[in-house]
């Protein structure tokens, strides 16, 4: 039994160390098709090679969140197998497009450590990078989790808390190489709205709902080679329920957001994300968005900073009088998208 | 909320207008694999590049119904989002093969309008074309739906009812470019029966049954980017059930028909189709066929006009004494297939 | 109704005859993606083209069990449609790698026949070969099944029972052409253990459990074009349950075995396999392995003979005091894997 991976505990992390995560993964047209079967995904840039060619690319790049999930999945055995809680994301930036046939691997640097006052667990901050087969960074993000200690008597490390940006600056957003929205076909894309048609504070109801089945979230989460037991093993929790991978809800919300944000072709950055309440099979997921900022990146490319909230209840639910998330809120995501200006 | 698509209502259609549907879609090997996972699909021409090469093609074309569903899915946001009923299909012809990597888009011309006497809805006829990235028509069909009015007081359009053929004529059936059945390997294809071995009036029980799960029909329907709420949202109907996309039943019936029609390699046309009763998860779908016509198209290629009926009950169910479909009948499809003569 | 395939009965088999199975199948990147969605598959050689290139191959070959299931599926309509029981496997050898885009077909030679004393059924032994589009054998195995007679009065054939090896000899194991483990990256592969780090008799608990859904096993089994009714039709058994294809459990167990056997990159042979008890949706499958032999094939390549047992209960379940499999045992598989030495 010594040959199986028990995962890392809090005292196993060293500030500054880099962990190379296992199992590189080639993602190709099959993963693209599955992404379209698992999520109601309609953004034209990721759906159509012809549309992407007309936008100056060599073909349809793989969906940004497909890249995120693949990189994230690689980190689970080293970062979150013994995690008690997934505390947050920050500074996620998509640096370059990923194409069918690319192979992704991941590395994480430990950038922060803080033992909890109870002495039984601690918080670990890592900066994770996803790399393609040429060694180029395609994605980077910071994530922090609460991890149990194996041995409560293990000494506490020196506390180091990284300084993290509240949001990626517009100037840091990367426009995919070659992207050109000058000849953009709004009719083919599905909606007429440009970046400058959106107003700060505007709220958009994405209208549609999707009821989730066990088979669907497990197919997705396995596809990302995410090994967290709670998603797959109905005997793991006392209530016999499988917890749905938070990233599954992110992808559902993003896909639903097509209705009202059809031209938000590229996810350029994720500023923050909270999985407010657990999601289970049988939940019907809806989403709404609020525009937080509208920026001009280039004459043809604008950026929207969005808050997209996924709920299992009615539209526009968020927080109660106590300032806490309402029980029907599943996800509160703060991110940047690119669209024709 | 003004940015989301509410769908068109009856008074939004103009006779003669052409609607370009959104979101072109590249379909490739991933969609082919999913088609084989979703339906018990065994027709050799679509299963094997090697078999297709031996039939004169450059490789296995994508399944004809996969093409149909992809094109149909594109039309939903513009044609049937506010549809009360899906009334019929006619004159569906598959004009040329679609290959992995092709990008499909769709256009519909409004060819008929008739307001209902209740003034609350009307019937819209459209002729839809699916086009590949070169702008070539790969599929065309007529469909008519009953659509609600937004405003009951909106004036009725002039009534225009198109004349539609009861069936595509044998001379109009397109043989895929390059197709050659002279060296056809019946053993590899699975059955010895040629077109001329079938007799008009002959009935074939396709024997097998498939019980449908929610996850399966939703994966399929999402893959076709069909956005109709009733297929995905368990809160949409009062009974909490999700209606299965009629095309899912068409593909199931076609795949089941392999058993007895293994050499019916190509669907060349659909003359008519009725979704006789709704299909739900948990239903076990069976199918039977009746031969309506046997035609010689070329020395090596014959055509069969088939009625294939999908049921959730016993074989050969169809209509009751009142001439109406029995409650166990799901689909009544009238179509042409090509097979070695 | 005479056109549908009723399957073969015991008296339809002739010693020495070769049956060419129908429906060749091209397997490509889409099937690879689905394999990763259906099973928690993480072996790096099959997950990453880049990793496979570093191991001397031209890219990631398709998973060995994906090849097994595809070949096996082709044989079902001719071998086991009327089978009462699936009795065993032997001498399964993987002869050469299968690559995305290859087309597989299958042939079976009848190598043994023995009518049962009750006169109502008999045992049929076949040696099946899977062939690629160049006619090269990629897989061969012996399987025997108990098949019903159509006519109890049909005369019994002369009894012929083939001699089968208890296990494939290490010298018969094929190392994939070009495979080179000299520069193997253990960190990327996920574990540090070489073949010589394993001891005969060592037991490994693979820890994780996967709860199976109906949609998942049906998607998988359809993907292999396996037509056995019991897997798909909930009305087929009196208890309304669908029996899960035994190969689905094999693939689940193999994928789970990553945890402790991450470097067992290649399945080279299957010596024997017993489906000890039926598996149904809702079962949570776990697995454990015992090392039966450790062999040196080449300086860089070692082989492990493994017994991997899949259970729906606790770890290390196997047989009771009566020597029979405990009811929680689903699979007992005896096979050879290749790993860096």
Count of all domains of chain A: 1
Mean pLDDT of chain A: 96
Give the overall shape of chain A. globular
Largest pleated sheet of chain A = 12 strands, antiparallel
Low-confidence stretches of chain A: none
What name is given to the CATH topology of chain A?
Answer: Thiol Ester Dehydrase, Chain A
Q: Treating each run of at least 4 consecutive H or I residues as one helix, how many helices of chain A?
A: 8
Strand content of chain A: 25-35%
Distance from N terminus to C terminus of chain A (CA atoms, Å) equals: 58 Å
Biggest interface, which chains? A-B, 49 and 38 residues
Query: Helix fraction of chain A?
Result: 10-25%
Which sequence of SSEs, written as H and E, runs from N to C of chain A?
EEHHHHEEEEHEEHHHEEEE
CATH class of chain A: Alpha Beta
Taking Cα atoms only, what radius of gyration of chain A do you get, to the nearest Å? 20 Å
Oligomer: homotrimer
Can you tell me the CATH superfamily of chain A? Hotdog Thioesterase
Task: Label the CATH architecture of chain A.
Answer: Roll
The class by helix and strand makeup of chain A works out as alpha+beta
Q: How many strand segments of chain A?
A: 12
């Amino acid at each position: 039994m010594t040959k199986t991976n028990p995962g890392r505990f809090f005292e196993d992390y060293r500030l500054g160390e880099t962990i190379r995560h296992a199992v590189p993964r080639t993602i190709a047209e099959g993963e693209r098709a599955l992404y379209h079967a698992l999520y109601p995904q309609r953004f034209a840039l990721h759906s159509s090679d012809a549309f992407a060619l007309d936008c100056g690319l060599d073909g349809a790049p793989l969906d940004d969140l497909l890249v995120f999930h693949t990189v994230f999945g690689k980190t689970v055995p080293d970062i979150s197998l013994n995690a008690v809680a997934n505390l947050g994301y920050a500074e996620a930036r998509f640096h370059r497009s990923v194409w069918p046939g690319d192979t992704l691997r991941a590395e994480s640097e430990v950038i922060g450590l803080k033992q909890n006052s109870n002495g039984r667990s601690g918080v670990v901050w890592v900066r994770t990078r996803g790399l393609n087969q040429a060694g180029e960074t395609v994605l980077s993000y910071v994530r922090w989790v609460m991890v149990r200690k194996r041995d409560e008597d293990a000494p506490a490390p020196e506390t180091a808390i990284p300084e993290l940006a509240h949001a990626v600056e517009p100037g840091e957003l990367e426009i995919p190489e070659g992207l050109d929205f000058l000849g953009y076909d709004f009719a083919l894309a599905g909606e007429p709205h440009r970046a400058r048609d959106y107003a700060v504070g505007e709220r958009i109801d994405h209208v549609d709902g999707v009821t989730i089945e066990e088979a669907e979230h497990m197919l997705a989460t396995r596809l990302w080679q995410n090994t967290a037991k709670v998603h797959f093993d109905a005997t793991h929790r006392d209530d016999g329920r499988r917890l749905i991978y938070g990233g599954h809800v992110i992808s559902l919300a993003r896909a639903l957001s097509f209705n009202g944000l059809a031209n938000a072709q590229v996810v350029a950055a994720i500023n923050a994300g909270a999985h407010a309440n657990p999601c289970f099979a049988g939940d019907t997921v809806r989403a709404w968005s609020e525009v937080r900022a509208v920026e001009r990146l280039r004459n043809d490319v604008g950026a929207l900073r969005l808050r997209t909230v996924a709920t299992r209840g009615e539209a526009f639910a968020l927080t109660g009088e106590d300032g806490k998330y309402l029980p029907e809120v599943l996800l509160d995501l703060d991110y940047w998208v690119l669209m024709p200006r």
